[in-house]
Amino acid sequence: MTTTAQELDARGLNCPLPILRAKKALNGLQHGEVLHVRATDPGSVKDFDAFCKSTGNELVSSEQNGGEYVFQIRKH
What we know:
The protein has 76 residues and is of the alpha+beta class. Helices cover 30% and strands 37% of the residues. It contains 2 helices and 4 strands.
């Protein structure tokens, strides 16, 4: 079970804003805490995957629900 430390609503924002807002939100979290992100930009799927790989954070889950994308990112 993953406990969300913070939620980020990035719906309606286009690249690079969802990533920039997620980066800022992650900076405020402690090691191991999870950021829950909701976005509507289809490009966010590959963007968050690449972001997590480049920053060392863990992409716990990535789901699509209709036109909405939901990500859970654990800070490392």
